[in-house]
Design brief:
The protein is α+β, with helices and mostly antiparallel strands. About 35% of the residues lie in helices and about 30% in strands. The protein has a 17-stranded mixed sheet that branches. Helix 8 packs antiparallel against helix 9. The radius of gyration is 25 Å and the shape is globular.
Length: about 425
């Protein structure tokens, strides 16, 4: 009540009222209504910005059907421990933030591969009986070096390149994001942090994401990362002119050399049987490559191989982009990735180390670009990662941010993990 009295005669565009059963009502208020006359505490949104203080209480009925308020919209927030995949798929088909990385098949594959003993918290927003927002989170416990912190994060964040909740079109994304963050913060305590990694800072949703986090988080540290991409013109020859002289010359020279070694071809895999047959070759090449650099291939881990195999089995085929470069039928490079909104997502490429003198990875990108231009694709997105080869091709960048969020009561564990321990390098790199 004190909070509302201080607002005096300010007026609001809309009011969100928190009820004890987590039902949230969004009521459009006539600009002439004096907020000071409202007798129930609530979250007030003025000029599109949410007041930061929320005081949960029982809400009274607002006169939304009166002459002063010709329209009214109600939202209901639920938190469950399972995903309704049918409802999620229906939302994805009409979602304005739909990506491969928030497709229900992606979530299901991640749960099958990584989700054992990780409790789910699925945040949903309903408009009547219509699902308008979905954000599945899971909770995992870290080890002794992280002071046994618990982490709430989007499903499969580590293997996801762009993390954004699934939001329906036709609704105010800023309001939906604010409500999801409000609910997510309620999951936190003195031992629990929220990690929202790789949030895309697009022109459409970037500001709304940051505003929702700033409104709801007591403690927050953000890590920036740029993702490289290559736009595709109408002709491959025009694309070549954008590359440096040395890069363009090397691509042409290696294509000629491979052509002399045998019949060079890009094979695009169109059915699941072909894709499943390709995966063991990709795993093997990736492992040999990383071991040659004294590294560890993620495909030496059973869960990661299971995850990619489940995607190959369940993700709609029109979202999968899988291809191989072959010379006389011998595979020298492989890629398992995705295709969505006229964009190829360059997810897991690798090449045969014994052919490295022919730059097979570079030739794979060039041949893929050539085929993509013919198919009307707009760009190839190389996404997360700082591999030098990406800079040879790219003329576009997308900024992503990873946020480590906590309540003030969790300051010691938050400070230890974000400052002393340089928390979660995987979210920055």
């Amino acid at each position: 009540m004190a909070r509302l009295r201080k607002l005096g005669s300010r007026t609001a565009d809309m009011i969100i009222v928190n009820k004890p059963d987590r039902v949230v009502s969004l009521v459009y208020i006539d600009p002439g209504i004096n907020i000071a006359t409202l007798v129930e505490p609530c979250l007030i949104i003025i000029n599109g910005l949410a007041e930061p203080t929320i005081m949960p209480t029982r809400a009274r009925d607002f006169p939304s059907a009166s002459a002063t308020s010709p329209t009214a919209v109600s939202y209901r927030v639920t938190v469950t421990d399972a995903i309704d995949h049918d409802a999620a798929l229906e939302l994805w088909t009409r979602g304005e933030t739909a990506t491969v990385f928030n497709h229900p098949a992606w979530w299901r594959a991640a749960l099958d591969a990584f989700g054992e003993q990780r409790p789910l918290r699925v945040l949903s927003i309903w408009h009547g009986r219509e699902l308008v927002a979905l954000w599945p989170l899971w909770i995992k416990r870290l080890g002794v070096r992280e002071a046994f912190a618990r982490v709430v994060e989007p499903i499969a964040a580590r293997v996801t390149d762009y993390c954004i909740p699934l939001l329906a079109s036709g609704h105010d994304a800023a309001i939906l994001l604010d409500m999801l963050m409000q609910e997510a913060v309620l999951l936190l305590d003195a031992q629990t942090l929220l990690l929202w990694s790789k949030a895309p800072m697009t022109q459409t949703h970037g500001a709304s994401i940051e505003r929702a986090i700033n409104n709801r988080s007591g403690l927050c540290r953000a890590y920036d990362r740029s993702c490289a991409a290559m736009s595709l013109p109408a002709r491959y020859e025009d694309l070549e002119t954008r590359w440096s002289k040395s890069h363009r010359g090397d691509v042409r020279r290696q294509i000629r050399r491979l052509g002399h070694a045998g019949r060079l071809e890009l094979v695009q895999l169109k059915d699941r049987a072909q894709i499943r047959a390709m995966l063991p070759r990709l795993y093997a090449m990736h492992t040999v490559n990383w071991r040659s650099r004294a590294g560890f291939s993620e495909f030496e881990s059973g869960p990661m191989t299971m995850f990619v195999a489940r995607l190959a089995d369940t993700l709609p085929l029109d979202l999968i982009d899988a291809s191989e470069v072959r010379v006389d039928g011998v595979t020298i490079a492989s890629h398992f990735g995705f295709r969505h909104n006229k964009t190829i997502l360059w997810y897991k490429p690798t090449f045969e180390l014994s052919w490295s003198n022919y730059a097979p990875g570079k030739i794979h990108v060039a041949l893929t670009a050539q085929a993509a231009i013919a198919a009307g694709v707009d760009k190839i997105d190389f996404m997360q990662g700082t591999e030098p080869y990406k800079q040879l091709w790219s003329d576009l960048t997308t900024l992503t941010k990873s946020f480590a969020i906590a309540r003030p009561m969790a300051y010691p564990i938050w400070a230890w993990n974000t400052t002393v321990r340089r928390f979660a390098a995987e979210y920055r790199n």
